[in-house]
User: Fold these one by one.
Assistant:
Number 1:
Amino acid sequence: MTALLIGTALAVASLCYVLYPLYRTGVSTVPRASTARKNRQSGAVEALRELEFDRQTGKISDSDYEPLKARYTEQALVAMRAGDAPVCERCGPRHEAEADFCSKCGAALVR
């Protein structure tokens, strides 16, 4: 009986420890702008690295490699030039900070 009570107490304590971050107040879950920019840049660079690795290992042909490399390079350049501004894949960086769609072409903006 004592072992059952101790086991239950440990299980409840572990559950409280795991769920505590979900119920804390005052903690922002939105990433900072500089972190979002770094993630965009590192994501584009990582895509280029993976593409190069796939080409070297023979998973992708040279005819498929060239257009993908050009597209990923363009995305990386746009992300680096954009800074904190939202980016339209067609028109480039946009100045509408709170917009969800490009005012020029209507495409969804990438943050």
Number 2:
Amino acid sequence: MFNGGMNNMQGMMKKVQKMQAEMVKLQEELKTRTIETTAGGGAVTLVVNGKKELESIKIDPAAVDPEDVEMLQDLIVTAVNEGMRKIDEMTEKEMSKVTGGIKLPGGML
């Protein structure tokens, strides 16, 4: 009985190691992906990468109103927050493919 248990444990450990290797590979690949998001009907468009870095931002000149700078600032914040949310969503979706839907603590991703 003990011997059969050891075989099961070894098999489980191999599966865990394989999953860990797949997760590391996926994490590296996700860092290279980008998403584009907009705010204000396209007034602000930005690209965020998988490392949660803002790569580019485009502002429609029509959105630049010297009398209402606060609105432009709000649009930028909204677009950045949406970009970060989408990166998190993409990462969680891709990781769940590797983990079989098991939710892992934040430090393990």
Number 3:
Amino acid sequence: MSQILSIKSNKPIKTVVLTNTAVSKVGELIAAEGESDLALRMAVRPGGCSGFSYEMFFDSEVEDADIIEDFGDVRVIVDPQSAERLRGSTLDYRDGLMGAGFAIDNPNVTKSCGCGNSFS
């Protein structure tokens, strides 16, 4: 599989980057599951009011074509089709007065819906 390089630095662009806060929260959630071989699988699926929606879940199975990114003890798995729509994205975990949850900053999004769960 060929790598996509950044024009500015000529380094490979990661499929997705996790902030330290996201790594910590994903690590906590995996530990709570009690299975040490779990990884966070991130995917993009058709659906939602803008065309695509994000999917995240814990998975222990890795396909040959999957892309794996390591963040300390946390592994992120992305299938090749989703990788094209996620490339360069950042996953963060936010905890504030208005609620807590994961947020994806995706530079590939051209429009998104009001609910924030769907994009194109």
Number 4:
Amino acid sequence: MAPGPDLDLVRRLAAADQGLAVLATTRPDGSVHTSLVNAGVLDHPVTGAPCVGLVARGDARKLAHFRRAGRAAVVFRAGWEWVSVEGPVELIGADDPHEWFPSENLPRLLRDIFRAAGGSHDDWAEYDRVMAAERRTAVLVAPARITGNG
């Protein structure tokens, strides 16, 4: 399948289940680390290429796995239909500054990811405060491989 239609399927399945997805990466011993996250499709804030984004707490174990392994898979589903996006991971956050991304734009990026995952908020200033206090990090997965049954 071509990247455009596949990411359209990702968008559709993400919207069908409130952005819920299973995220997988590997631990140092090669075993699989999984967690349930909210994720969605958005344009990469530096390259403009479509990617899957999610937000992780600054103390989340998955961030150490991403830093080491550099890859992840994100699986979205609705009913029996599913799609997996696998590829390299890029982190942007207080503990993961990006050479080409101004740190003062991090609150907007975290909001963009939250909205791409179907989220909304009544008080964006409070949202920004909590994200900063928890040292939240943007996790961007490039769609190197997309598979599914849709």
